[in-house]
Structures are given as C-alpha cells and as structure tokens.
C-alpha cells in the first residue's frame, strides 16, 4: 500500500459551485479524519469516521459541508455553495485506531481555490 | 476546549547542532497523547514522535526527543545533530480522549549548512 491518497490534488472553482473531494485511506485503517489547513496555520480538525460511522464533527463544519464514508473505505468531503473563505488545503488522514496512540498518516491534501 | 501554542514561528539551526522547539497546551484532561509532526515544503505531513501523557519517560526516536512536563503542560522537541533534511514546518498536536486532534500554528525550521 502506498499510503493515503487524495483526489484531486488541486481544484479551482467559482464561488457558489459545489465541490467534492475524495480520500482513500490505508487499506487496513478503520479511522479516517478530515482537516482544513490555511496558509500559516496548523490543520484544523473537521470530522472523523470510525469505519462508516461519523463520530465527531467540529463546529467549524457548517451545514454546507458534508462528509461520508460508505462501507468504511474511501471518504468524500463535499462543500456546497462554495465561498472564498473555503479556499484552503483539505487534508485527509487515516489511522488504525485502538489503544496504540492512534498515529495518523496524512495524505498529500487537496488545495481548493475559490474565485 | 484544548489549545496548543507554539510560540516560535521560525527557528534556525546550524547543521550538526541541536535545536529545541517549544510547545505548550491547555487541557483539563488527564489522559491524552501528544505528537510532533513534520511538514516539508509541498510535501505531506509525517509523524516525528509521540508521547503518552501517562508515561513519565520522555519519548525518543533516533535524533528526536521530547521534554514532556505534564504539570507545566509543556512538550518541547529536541533535534540533535541537525541535518539539511530536517528543514520543515513542525507542528505540535494534542489528541483528546474524544479522539479530536488539535494542532499548533507551527514552527518553521531552517537548517543552515
């Protein structure tokens, strides 16, 4: 396995359009996380899944954002009616879970630019 | 809510020397994990080292070690024998019992040849 992958790597869209990002975690990992990172800042937690269940959701995640992880494999993050403030790097990470400190492995991110 | 503070936006170190990056955090929890992640320019984030709060012994990974002071809520990273490949943005992170992660704003490390 080559690690966490994300698609697309870059997305440019116009304000008001909907966008969807995909994350493929490391195959045996049951936890999957989404973060948003803006320039000069650390990643901000958005949400995470344990298998197909969405267990935590940040207050940062407005009702324009929705995430799914059907069948506990890949995950999608959709942003509806994009705004310029949504421009950021969206990072996905996965982990095995359990009691081992839950080390996360990050993907390369999807850079979103909203014009 | 938990917060993570990295008070050094930028640091530099001479190659082969030692540098320490600072991190403090605020929490009311007693059981948690702390991490240092490295994010090289235009590359993905990778784990450098982690520390379980219930362990008094400081974690060590080759040239990387931490100084974990639980009472002071301090978690600094020491890089020994710095190498050019250590140049990156370093993020301190806290994992809560609810499995949410909180990251600091990062410290940009420059290694001078």
Rounded average pLDDT of chain A: 91
Can you give the mean pLDDT of chain B? 93
Shape of chain A: globular
Order of helices and strands of chain B: EEEEEEEEEEEE
**Rg calc of chain B:** 13 Å
Number of strands of chain B: 12
Termini separation of chain B (Å)? 41 Å
Largest sheet of chain A: 7 strands, mixed
Helix segment tally of chain B: 0
Instruction: Indicate the low-confidence ranges of chain B by residue numbers.
Output: none
In DSSP terms, counting alpha (H) and pi (I) runs of 4 or more, how many helices of chain A? 0
Secondary-structure class of chain B: mainly beta
What helical percentage do the residues of chain B reach?
under 10%
What does this structure look like?
The complex is a heterodimer of chains A (about 120) and B (about 110). By secondary structure, chain A is mainly beta. Chain A contains no helices and eleven strands. In chain A, the strands form two sheets. In chain A, strands 2, 4, 5, 6, 9, 10 and 11 form a seven-stranded mixed sheet that branches. A four-stranded antiparallel sheet of chain A has the order 1-3-8-7, with no helix packed on it. In chain A, strand 5 (about 45-50) and strand 6 (about 55) form a beta hairpin. Chain A is globular, with a radius of gyration of 13 Å. In chain B, strands 2, 5, 6, 10, 11 and 12 form a six-stranded mixed sheet that branches. Chain B has a four-stranded antiparallel sheet with strand order 3-9-8-7, with no helix packed on it. Chain B has a two-stranded antiparallel ribbon with strand order 1-4. The mean pLDDT of chain B is about 95. Chain B is globular and about 40 Å long. With about 110 residues, chain B is an all-beta fold. The interface of A and B includes residues 31, 35, 58 and 91 of A.
């Amino acid at each position: 396995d080559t690690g966490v992958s994300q698609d697309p790597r870059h997305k440019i869209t116009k304000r008001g359009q909907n966008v969807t990002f995909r994350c493929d975690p490391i195959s045996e990992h049951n936890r999957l996380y989404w973060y948003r990172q803006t320039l000069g800042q650390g990643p901000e937690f958005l949400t995470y899944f344990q298998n197909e269940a969405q267990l935590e959701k940040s207050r940062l995640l407005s009702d324009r954002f929705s995430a799914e992880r059907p069948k506990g494999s890949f995950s999608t993050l959709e942003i509806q009616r994009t705004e310029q403030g949504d421009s950021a790097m969206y990072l996905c990470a996965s982990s095995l879970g359990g009691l081992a400190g839950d080390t996360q492995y990050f993907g390369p991110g999807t850079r979103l630019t909203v014009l | 809510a938990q917060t993570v503070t990295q008070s050094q936006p930028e640091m530099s170190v001479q190659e082969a020397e030692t540098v320490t990056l600072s991190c403090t955090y605020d929490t009311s929890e007693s059981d948690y994990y702390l991490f240092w992640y490295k994010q090289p320019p235009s590359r993905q984030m990778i784990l450098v080292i982690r520390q379980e709060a219930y362990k008094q012994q400081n974690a060590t990974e080759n040239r990387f070690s931490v100084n974990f002071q639980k009472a002071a809520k301090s978690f600094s990273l020491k890089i020994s024998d710095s190498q050019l490949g250590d140049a990156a943005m370093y993020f301190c992170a806290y994992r809560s019992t609810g499995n949410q992660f909180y990251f600091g704003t990062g410290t940009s490390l420059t290694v001078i040849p």
